Description:
The chain is an alpha+beta fold and 462 residues long. It folds into three domains: 4-157 and 324-416, 3-Layer(bba) Sandwich (FAD/NAD(P)-binding domain); 163-320, Elongation Factor Tu (Ef-tu), domain 3 (Beta Barrel); 421-461, no CATH class. The chain is built from twelve helices and 17 strands. The chain has helices at 11-22, 64-74, 78-85, 98-111, 143-153, 203-215, 236-241, 294-301, 326-329, 354-373, 385-394, 435-461, and strands spanning 4-7, 27-31, 54-57, 87-88, 93-96, 115-119, 133-135, 158-164, 167-169, 179-180, 196-201, 269-275, 282-285, 312-314, 317-323, 335-336, 339-344. Strand 12 and strand 13 form a beta hairpin. Helix 1 runs parallel beside helix 10 and helix 2 (64-74) packs parallel to helix 10 (354-373). The longest helix is centred in the C-terminal third of the chain and has 27 residues, at 435-461. The two termini are 22 Å apart.
Amino acid sequence: MQPIHVIGGGLAGCEAAWQIARAGVPAVLHEMRPERTTEAHRTASLAELVCSNSFRSDDAETNAIGVVHREMRALGSLIMRSADAHQVPAGGALAVDRDGFSAAVEATIAAEPLIRVERGEIAGLPPHDWDSVVVATGPLTSPGLAAAIRALTGEDSLAFFDAIAPIVHRDSIDMNVVWPQSRYDKAGPGGSGADYLNCPMNRTQYEAFVDALIAADKTEFREFEGTPYFDGCLPIEVMADRGRETLRYGPMKPVGLTNAHAPTIKPYAVVQLRQDNALGTLFNMVGFQTKLKYGEQTRVFRLIPGLEKAEFARLGGLHRNTFLDSPRLLDATLRLKAAPRLRFAGQITGCEGYVESAAVGLIAGRLAAAERLGRAFAPPPPTTAIGALVNHITGGHIEAIDAGPRSFQPMNVNFGLFPPIAEARVDEDGKRLRGPERGAARKRALSARAAADLAAWLQQSA
């Protein structure tokens, strides 16, 4: 049987190759590193996490990303299996030891006899005798391949900046100032309710920090000038420049926390650090993606109480992400309309986030395998989280795709992508639901419908 070629050894590519092999079809997984590196990767490992180590909320009841976690586990995801095996405490989130996670994915891929890994850049369109290809090259697609895709489609790839947060050595943090606590003491997978380190600021310290952020020297990428940022991953200094209170209502919000060193004094703002490895020796600065120059990062971030003597295992950085105008270019099965032998997966399709990228890789792999075997296969219905995400990417949610100008932007999964559901107006005791309670009830209903519809889809697909 002819193999299916998967280009890109990130989360989406590894998941796609795994799903292809699980269906009994051979796969060749192509990864250009270490032959060609990128601006963001540090290693040549498969499934390297280049930004945060968090897979975000694991709450499948009221959070859409938690619903994706649940669905991927039900679908036998390699990425979720490896994440669960290498989780580190992170409150209500699922965070992983990044090196252990990557090593687990790579070891599993290497041990699968139906997957062959080939190192080397695919610098243009794949050879014509590759009749089935999954392109999962992510936001850092090699220039040669990106140019070939643009030439083939007649469309310019869109682009936006994505930034990386710094990582701090745990033993350089002043624990006489910092205290461990998750917001509202929430204990997530493998957690205790004290999974974050919290650096408190009073108003004077906060104002000085914002001033320093705004005034600091930033890295400039003139060739990318005019490229928009993705709102879900804004650099910390860009947030500060948008308004002096922006950070207090974003990554530095002081809610759900009590300073163990001064319980009666409410912090004006709080910087949180999340465990980044299983040993607990490294901590990630939550929400602190940045394009400050390296020397400025060290100077400015040491203004944070408790981090005055911080030593950084990695400083923040900035790179450009590219993605397709997928609703116009891809069909309902993620194939390129201009060349149906090419199927796309992961962040290059315009989904955003580790889990979303892997979820689209999972579906792309299953679609490619079914096509090779001559079997019918449809993605999960749009009432499920994965189905809603694929629906967003392929334009199924747009009634008239050519009805006028519009902007397709990368998006994390969210309940706004799900078809509406009749909302409960009262609780089980007949009490009228208002505000947040009503919103939470709607999310629980959407999650419950997604669970039921995925179960029915799985039964039909068996």
